[in-house]
Amino acid sequence: MPEQPRIVIIGGGHAGLTMALRLRRKLRAGEAAVTVIDTQPHMTYQPFLPEAAAGSLEPRHVVVPLREALRGCQVLTAQVTSIDHAQRELTVMLGDGKVEHVSYDVLAVVPGSISRALPIPGLAEQGIGFKTIGEAIYLRNHVLSRLDIAASTRDEQLRRRLLTFVFVGGGYAGIEAMAELESMARYAIRSYPPVSPQEMRWVLVEAMGRIMPEVSPPMSEYTRQRLEERGIEVKLNTTAKSFEDGHVVLSDGDEFDTDTVVWTAGVKPHPMLEDSDLPRDTKGRVECTAKLQVRGTHNVFSAGDCAAVPDLTSSDPDALCSPSAQHAVRQAKLLADNIVALLRGEPLTDYKHRYAGSVAGLGLFQGAAEVYGVKLKGFPAWLLHRVYHLAKMPTASHKARILGDWLLELPFRRQVVALGELHDPRAEFVKAANTRGLPGPNGRAAG
């Protein structure tokens, strides 16, 4: 009996999970074996990260365990360190540090992207991104802990530093993260009587002349106005020059101190692609045909943020699909269909999708949306944002849990407690263990 063809998917993010689920449904029994490789054992639904950070959603509900969702597929928690397509082989490092080689018959490269940081002094030491559930939880606890400390100190200079929050990058990720966290902080500050909402300073820094380039200029301007009405400073045509020791220096001459720098100024393809023999463009993305096949190959495919896919809906023959979740998920579905067609000797289909528009949440009951030219603002846009992403969330159980979180938010107040010890859970135990032999309160040696 011939051995099953092996389909290997690099990346268990939204695109990778969507593709694997579709393959599992479309493949006949025994037609092929599917392996998914990712450094994390779960998929994070990134559009819900701002709400997880703000406390509207339980963080566990915005991540989908790969092994739970992909029964029947092999899930390998490992880091791909190189791709050798000439030998049809991957080199992977397992969690225990061992290095193994994984062969494939069909390869799907969908590792996604990482934050694109710039060599700005102090950024690596002071900044944090907003692409993972860990970063979202950290920022929630961090912002609330700043309110806690500010309410306990009489040092005015320290209070100003603690209550100043800087976000760099005016795309969807930065806008939604800042809007949700500002909304949460404004709600939480009522529990900190010594601190007033007017003492908080929220600053958005954007190098371009507008925010949210994904929508039309009027919608971009509407969003900017809504943010400024809430007291958020939107600095356009401005770049960051330094963050050293928490002292922010901007290109417009403004300088101030802060404890919070959130970097959402763009992404770049996963660095794993640098050690591969696949063709890449000047931005490091894998070059693909409209059928999502990597150029020069017939059995390697790619999609999502790391793929340079021709945009067949554009009049420009050199146009590429934008790195958005909307394209990534649709490409993942077609990619799965094309792999099945390849295995069965059937013709492959071109990817062609006109960008439908965007929806953004700007805090509780506030939003902005532009879908197929129709503009929505305020509560209708916020509701559309929630309905759309709830529909796109994988698995029925996670949809139900998220809906439950939202319904519980209606009759009850938001939970605004900071759990900073989550970031160093051993600190208290280490402190206790190191007090052995020291005098206790009764004069005797502790322990």
TrEMBL record:
Pfam families, per the entry: Pyr_redox_2
All copies of domain FAD/NAD(P)-binding, residue ranges: 6-330
SUPFAM superfamilies assigned: FAD/NAD(P)-binding domain
Organism: Saccharopolyspora antimicrobica
Origin superkingdom: Bacteria
InterPro entries per UniProt: FAD/NAD-bd_sf, FAD/NAD-binding_dom, NDH-2
Protein name: NADH dehydrogenase
GO-annotated molecular function: NADH dehydrogenase activity
Gene3D superfamilies, A to Z: 3.50.50.100
Keyword line: FAD, Flavoprotein, NAD, Oxidoreductase
Family per record: Belongs to the NADH dehydrogenase family.
